[in-house]
Design a protein that fits this description.
The protein is of the alpha/beta class. It is built from 8 helices and 14 strands.
């Protein structure tokens, strides 16, 4: 089904509004910290300077505000994120699902409260384009969230006269053929470690071939919303066939797929709680005992 067609979109919007009407029977709309799992992930980033050792990135994905995730949920999520004292916050797309105008104000209100030490970066997902990419980008700009879709951000640090750089790049929605890795590769400097934000996880098969990224952070799959212990998720779809959940080694690059925060269409998760991912970047020099 193509959600880009007006009829398909209207059908999905009707489902969302119906579920909202009966929310009390589906699940409580109040925020409970215990509903959200904080997942620590350590990743050794090739060529990462010791200045960035233990650098902390908190990633959010697939907020889907307006479906199961309510404004109250999102306010609580932002509180949880800020309590992690992140150096950087990244958001890997799908801020909304099928209705935007009803959630623009609470989305902007919450995102403005993010308080990382350095910066918040984001890329867009397929739902953001279906609902209005330019509107989402205006919200991000109003919240001082830097959109790195098909772009890069270079973070420079200096300690005791020593300088180091970490590049964070992003691609726009692969599912909707908005991605331009070629532009990213033109913009990114040849030197310095790099991380890629890509909403769709299976793009790792393409990005890893460049040999330029030590880590790709993705979402899109929601972890399948249904996990069988010992087997993982049996629900896979476009662009999350190979890497639907968790940490993978793809060539020389680590791919991490978040279970995300929200749900899509069906408002339930089984053995697949919403996730806030806390990445701890590791310098190989420090890990090998050769650093300062």
């Amino acid at each position: 089904m193509n959600e880009k067609t007006p009829r398909a979109m209207e059908f999905r919007q009707k489902i969302q509004r119906t579920m909202t009407r009966y929310r009390h029977k589906v699940r409580n709309s109040e925020f409970k910290p215990s509903d959200f799992e904080l997942i620590p992930v350590e990743v050794i980033i090739p060529n990462l300077d010791p200045i960035f050792h233990n650098y902390r990135i908190v990633n959010l994905s697939d907020i889907h505000l307006g479906q199961w995730i309510t404004p109250d949920h999102l306010e609580g999520i932002i509180d949880l994120v800020n309590k992690q004292n992140p150096d950087m916050v990244t958001i890997t797309g799908d801020f909304v699902s099928y209705i935007l105008d009803e959630v623009e104000e609470p989305l902007e209100k919450s995102l403005k409260r993010l308080s990382p030490r350095d910066i918040t970066l984001a890329v867009l997902g397929n739902h953001d384009h279906w609902l209005g990419a330019e509107k989402i980008r205006i919200i991000l700009k109003n919240c001082s969230v830097t959109d790195v879709s098909n772009d890069i951000f270079s973070l420079n640090k200096e300690i005791n006269g020593k300088k180091a750089t970490l590049h964070v790049a992003g691609v726009d929605s692969v599912m909707l053929d908005k991605h331009r890795l070629d532009l990213v590769m033109e913009k990114i400097p040849n030197d310095g470690p790099a991380i890629l934000l890509a909403h769709e996880p299976d793009f790792a098969d393409v990005s890893s071939i460049t040999g330029r990224f030590g880590l790709q952070i993705s979402g899109h799959s929601h972890g399948g919303q249904f996990i069988i212990p010992g087997l993982g998720t049996i629900i896979r779809g476009p662009h999350f066939i190979k890497y639907p959940l968790g940490k993978y080694q793809v060539g020389d690059m680590v791919q991490y797929t978040s279970r995300g925060l929200g749900t899509n269409i069906f408002w339930f998760r089984i053995n697949c709680p919403p996730e806030i991912t806390i990445f701890h970047l590791k310098s190989p020099e420090v890990n090998n005992g050769t650093g300062p």
